[in-house]
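thought: user wants a sequence for this fold. calling inverse folding tool.
action: design(structure=
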């Protein structure tokens, strides 16, 4: 939520859009991108696929040089916008190499600021990627999940990206989200995976948004399964909500980088009654870490890059 009035907020978005157009002035074909791609943890290499030769140009702009943009502080998030053309149809795109997270101390207004700026530039589609924990017990590390729905846990408790005076310029006060993840785009993505003959497992499921920065406890993991979540992460949903508020069509991809621990912790009482020593119990086995997330993302990144490149080239 911003303390600025809707008119003042719109002025901030317009200022950032105008700044970007200035950087892109020598390359007018890039001034109106069709697709915004948000690169999740370890997936910044997506921007390396943008064409660069005598015909097609590639322009990188640091977040610190754009009014209203924050700088991400999380490893795996570089903090730059990259403009260029992607795929067989040379679709004009802008890539966010690094995103902002609520747990970093940013407001939802700052976290989603680039989405509204992208809308002012003419973006019609959002392709959002993330690294996520596998809640569904059939998911394996390295699998991909196409998001078909989400649970906005902070939002249900009032921490919502559309909280505050509505920005009528972009969208309605009361936004339905039953169609948040476009069916036709999801269908096209599965078509793309078939044509590429990818060997990696690709699922379709529900993404649970938890604000982080801690990974979930064992009891929380069991709760997520009970609520119907298939994957859990610390981003994406605020961006999707604002993109839908702006009228963009959305496709979301989660790269499963670890399996959550949902079994109950070892009982100290039972261990003691059996006469076992506590040193025999290892509570860290299978525990998630950000290093593991980045390592898993890097190992599967090539398939994700191929899939996104082919898919975006069909838009």
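)
observation: tool returned 315 residues.
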């Amino acid at each position: 939520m911003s303390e600025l009035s809707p008119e003042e907020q719109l002025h901030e978005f317009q200022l950032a859009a105008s700044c970007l157009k200035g950087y892109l002035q020598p390359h007018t074909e890039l001034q109106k991108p069709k697709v915004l791609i948000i690169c999740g943890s370890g997936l910044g290499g997506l921007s390396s696929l943008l064409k660069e030769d005598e015909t097609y140009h590639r322009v990188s702009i640091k977040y610190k040089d754009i009014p209203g943009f924050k700088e991400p502080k999380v490893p795996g998030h570089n903090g730059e916008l990259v403009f260029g053309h992607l795929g067989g149809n040379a679709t004009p795109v802008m890539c966010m190499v690094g995103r902002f997270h609520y747990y970093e101390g940013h407001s939802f207004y700052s976290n989603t600021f680039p989405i509204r700026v992208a809308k002012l530039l003419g973006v019609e589609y959002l392709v959002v990627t993330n690294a996520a924990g596998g809640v569904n017990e059939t998911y394996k590390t390295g699998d991909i999940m196409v998001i078909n729905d989400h649970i906005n846990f902070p939002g249900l408790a009032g921490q919502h990206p559309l909280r505050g005076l509505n920005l009528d310029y972009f969208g309605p006060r009361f936004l339905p989200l039953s169609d948040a993840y476009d069916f036709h785009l999801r269908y096209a993505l599965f078509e793309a995976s078939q044509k590429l003959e990818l060997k990696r497992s690709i699922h379709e499921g529900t993404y649970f948004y938890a604000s982080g920065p801690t990974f979930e406890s064992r009891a929380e993991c069991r709760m997520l399964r009970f609520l119907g979540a298939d994957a859990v992460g610390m981003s994406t949903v605020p961006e999707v909500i604002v993109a839908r508020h702006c009228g963009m069509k959305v496709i979301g991809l989660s790269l499963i980088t670890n399996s959550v621990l949902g079994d109950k912790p070892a009982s100290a009482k039972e261990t003691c009654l059996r006469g076992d020593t506590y040193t025999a119990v290892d509570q860290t086995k299978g525990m998630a870490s950000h290093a593991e997330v980045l390592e898993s993302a890097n190992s599967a990144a090539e398939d994700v890059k191929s899939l996104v490149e082919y898919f975006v080239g069909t838009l």
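thought: summarizing for user.
answer: Here is the designed sequence. The mean pLDDT is 89.
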